[in-house]
Design brief:
The complex is a heterodimer of chains A (451) and B (232). Chain A has 451 residues and is mainly beta. Chain A folds into two domains: 131 residues, 3-Layer(aba) Sandwich (Rossmann fold), CATH 3.40.50.10070; 264 residues, Neuraminidase. Chain A is 12% helix and 42% strand. In chain A, β27 and β28 form a beta hairpin. In chain A, α2 crosses α4. The longest helix of chain A has 19 residues. The two termini of chain A are 41 Å apart. Chain B is mainly alpha-helical and 232 residues long. In chain B, a hairpin with a 5-residue loop joins β1 and β2. In chain B, α6 crosses α8. The chains are: A mainly beta (451), B mainly alpha (232). Chains A and B meet through α1, β1 and α4 of A and α6, α7, α8 and β3 of B. β1 of chain A pairs parallel with β3 of chain B, so a sheet runs across the interface.
């Protein structure tokens, strides 16, 4: 097929070439490979984001590591660089061309009189010898890691055309001493590179299904602190917690609506598990599914909150369904395999990821709803809890490594896979945060100095 | 005296032998000369293989190889071959049968000659050939440029099938890039940039050594980037 298209393309161009005597060459295929980038160590004084005898932060290293983790970039180790420019005049494009680089990032930092730090970086394209963007970020020292991730986000978006998601967070449940009587459950928030872990809630009872509010400032999760399942919404800045669902039976799988005002959940208060939506301001509960004979659970929101997807065994085994909230009409989305569950829609509303069982092994699958194509993304087994990055490019999920729960990340094109480092204990139930807006209170500011 | 007579035989033999070798040498060179065009032809075959090479994602066209010129030569001889054939309609001349036979033999030899001699074919239809060569050259080099750029084109994840970015490319006769200009944007700056980088990285391009062909088609041309092979 490809060959045919190409043959036609060449044929057409040839006809045009021989007829009009003005040729046009049509390129219909490419050879996609990671973009080669060099992030040169930034100039300026050694910087630390926390007091005490800690190693200075390597801003360029953080940027570089972010880009590499996306799978779309190959970063040049600084040891292999021919020069280490920190200002534009020192960039010799010939050197970077010899090294095969497509892009070069240089930068530097300075400490301002008010103790804030100004970090300026410049992105150059080697082939055309052009500066593409240059920006200065000003922020307090404790936000330096954020600054590095913001820089990575900008560079990523500039080159790929896709918004970067490096300055986002993940939440997960870390189980210390699993399978022991004194097991503890720690709801933990960290940067997506695994840094800056922070326990936001600790309990001796299980914690399940954490999910982010769209503003990234609140979490909803299931806690067993009262002895039975309870849905809790917690404010991350203040730590304030509110129990929003304590109905008889199961209270599970809370998910914030895209506007953050409602929570979809699975409740068994009316006999068996059904999907409900609770308004967080008015506390009004609305039942969405009505199938007393089937288990309906694990809701997820469609774009703009107009539909819900959920798992149901109404056809005999778990499959994914979608229900339009205006018409309440459900339609089945998955047909391959005898077990498909825990689905999440990509931001485009067209692609779906979910847990898929084939030959008795649980994998994460990706499905194009328009073309009805299904691909298995992971090679591990016992994969569960897929959660998408807000830009839809990567997915985090829980899996097992030597009998221990760990977190792994896979790109939705399955080109890159890696495991997140984790200390002791079992890591479960990850959820990737939405895009975090740069908070005005943090004093961070951004100025585009050139473009 | 008797010695002379005694040696006359061997001397004669030696002379004859030399003459024979000389004759053999002279005759022996002839076929070699005939083979010359055939020795050239393998290059033509090589050029064809180059075209078949397409799927290979590498662009490795040694820039200083003038080989690809001949491909048309290979294609051309075929239509030329039959040309001499129609000429000898075996006119049944009852007058002198012997002459007719001679004529037939001559024609046969001529046909053989025509088949072997590409040069002769060239001469007979030089003009047509030149034009066909130019077109074929254009096609060959267009395809080579296509392949060279394709191998360098890494599309960003925001690229979608059927996006279109059109560039104008200016070259110098050595194939080096003089300028790239975006004529029609795809609407996605990252996509446009990926295409421009591919053009720059693929340069210098291999261009036809034929001055006229270069001026007609390769001094300035347009490139349309429109992916068809992406997942989405």
């Amino acid at each position: 097929m490809k060959g045919l298209i190409k043959a036609i393309a060449i044929g057409l161009t040839l006809a045009a070439a021989l007829g009009a005597r003005a040729i046009e060459i049509v390129i219909t295929e490419g050879w996609d490979s990671p973009t080669k980038i060099a992030v040169v160590p930034f100039g300026g004084p050694p910087l630390r984001d926390q007091p005490g005898p800690v190693a200075p932060l390597d801003l360029a290293g953080i940027v570089s590591f972010d880009l590499v983790r996306s799978g779309q970039f190959d970063a040049l180790p600084s040891d292999n660089m021919l020069s280490l420019p920190t200002v534009a005049e020192e960039v010799y494009f010939r050197d970077w061309r010899i090294l095969g680089m497509d892009y070069v990032v240089i930068g530097g930092a300075e400490v301002l009189p008010d103790a804030r730090i100004a970090v300026t970086y410049r992105l150059f394209e080697v082939a055309s010898e052009r500066e593409i963007i240059s920006t200065t970020w000003t922020a307090p020292g404790e936000q330096l890691r954020d600054v590095a991730h913001w820089i990575a986000d900008e560079v990523y978006e500039e080159i790929t055309g896709v918004r970067g998601a490096f300055a986002t967070k993940i939440v997960y449940v870390l189980v210390q001493n699993p399978n022991a009587p004194d097991a503890t459950y720690e709801l933990t928030v960290a940067d997506v590179d695994g840094e800056r872990e922070r326990v936001v809630y600790r309990s001796s009872e299980p914690i399940l299904s954490p999910s982010w509010a769209p503003d990234g400032k609140r979490l909803a999760y299931v806690s067993f602190e009262t002895g039975r399942s309870t849905i809790v919404v917690q404010d991350l800045a203040t730590g304030a917690r509110r129990r929003v669902a304590e109905y008889p039976g199961i209270n599970g799988a809370p998910v914030f609506s895209p506007d953050g005002t409602q929570l979809a959940m699975a409740l068994s208060r009316d006999g068996n598990s059904e999907i409900y939506i609770k308004d967080l301001e008015t506390d009004v509960l609305r039942r969405i599914t009505r199938r007393p004979s089937a288990i309906d659970t694990e809701p997820g929101w469609g774009p703009e909150g107009k539909s819900l997807i959920f798992t149901s065994d109404r056809a005999g085994q778990p499959q994914i369904y979608r229900i339009d909230l205006a018409t309440s009409l459900p339609d089945r989305l998955t047909f391959q395999g005898d077990y498909n569950a825990r689905a999440r829609l990509l931001p485009d509303g067209r692609h779906l990821v979910y847990v898929h069982r084939s030959n008795g092994v649980y994998h994460i699958a990706w499905q194009d709803l328009e073309r009805d194509v299904v691909r298995v993304l992971t090679e591990t087994s016992l994969d569960e809890s897929p959660s998408l990055a807000p830009n839809g490019m990567m997915m985090i999920y829980a899996t097992q490594l030597r009998g221990r729960g760990i977190l792994a990340v896979v790109s939705v094109d399955s080109r890159v896979k890696y495991n997140l480092p984790s200390g002791l204990g079992d890591v479960r139930e990850p959820a990737w945060s939405p895009f975090m807006t740069v908070d005005a209170q943090t004093l961070a500011s951004r100025a585009v100095t050139a473009r | 005296m008797s010695a002379l007579r005694e040696y006359a035989g061997p001397v004669l033999l030696a002379l004859l032998l030399h003459a024979a070798i000389a004759a053999a040498l002279v005759r022996g060179w002839q076929p070699d000369t005939d083979d010359m065009p055939r020795l050239v032809q393998p290059r033509i075959i090589e050029a064809s293989i180059l075209v078949m090479d397409k799927p290979a994602p590498r662009p490795p066209l040694p820039s200083a190889r003038p080989d690809p010129v001949p491909p048309p030569v290979e294609r051309e001889p075929e239509p030329v071959k039959p040309e001499p054939k129609p000429e000898p309609p075996p006119r049944p001349d009852p007058e002198i049968e012997r002459r007719a036979q001679e004529e037939a033999a001559r024609q046969k030899r001529l046909r053989e000659l025509a088949e072997q001699s590409t040069v002769q074919a060239f001469e007979s239809e030089a003009a047509d050939l030149a034009e066909a060569t130019a077109d074929a050259q254009t096609m060959t080099y267009m395809d080579a440029i296509n392949r060279a750029i394709r191998a360098q084109w890494s599309r960003p994840p925001s690229a979608r099938n059927d996006m279109k970015a059109r560039f104008q490319v200016d070259l110098v006769p050595s194939g080096e890039l003089l300028g790239v200009m975006l004529l029609d944007t795809s609407g996605n700056p990252a996509f446009d940039r990926s295409a421009e980088i591919a053009i720059r990285k693929a340069s210098p391009f291999e261009v036809p050594p034929d001055h006229d062909v270069f001026e007609a088609n390769f001094r300035r041309f347009t490139l349309l980037f429109s992916p068809q092979d992406l997942l989405r």
